Each structure stands twice: as structure tokens, then as C-alpha cells.
Amino acid sequence: MDDKIAKEIKGKIITEIDKTEKSIVEYKEITKPIAPENAIGRISRMDAINNKSVAEAALRQAEEKLGKLKYMLTQVGEDDFGICAKCKKPIPIGRILLMPQSRHCVNCAT
């Protein structure tokens, strides 16, 4: 992998890390406990609890993605960067730029 592509991938990973960290802050705000004394009505409260559960799942996914992105940032420039962890074939650059946290090619990711 040449330096120009490695620099582009590194920039993309850093951008994704920044966006993911901002999302995590937002999700943490959304997932704060819902006080029982809030007079929002039974149905509205149930809806708020459901939305909180969805946001908690999104928070877990964002935290997992952040961990993978930080790991991949350390791997840019390594000999096996851009090689599928399963089949050992090169991962297309387009996929790396689209999903920099992925360690698998499209065929192995499914």
C-alpha cells in the first residue's frame, strides 16, 4: 500500500473516530435514567423507555465501533493492513474507506 493511500485511510479513520465519539456523547445524554416522578403520562413514559433502549443499543454499537477504529488506526502501515483476517485476500480500498473498522472482505463479513 502506497503512502498516499495510507494517509487517506488514516485521515478517514480519524474522521470516523471523531464522528463516533460525538455520537457516543449524544447517546449517553439520551440514555440517562428517566425519573419516575416526571409527569409525562403513562404512554409517553413507555415510549421514552423504549426510545432509551434503542439508544442504549446504538451506544453499545458506537462504543464497539470506536474500539475497532482505534485499533485499525494503529494498524495502518503494517504489512497485513488491508488483508482480510479470515481469507487473507486483499480488502478493496473502497471497502476500507467506507468501513475502516472492518477487518474482513465483503465475502467473509457475511
Brief digest:
The chain is an all-alpha fold. Helix content is 65%, strand content 0%.
Characterization of the model:
The chain has a domain at 3-78. The longest helix has 34 residues, at 42-75. Helix 1 (3-30) runs antiparallel to helix 2. It is 65% helix and 0% strand. It is elongated. The model has no long low-confidence stretch (mean pLDDT 88). The two termini are 25 Å apart. The protein contains four helices and no strands. It has 110 residues and is mainly alpha-helical.
Q: Can you lay out the helices and strands and say which pair or pack?
A:
Elements: H1 3-30, H2 42-75, H3 93-98, H4 106-109
Number of helices: 4
Major sheet: none
- Would you identify the regions where 5 or more consecutive residues have pLDDT less than 50? none
Instruction: Name the helicity range.
Output: 55-70%
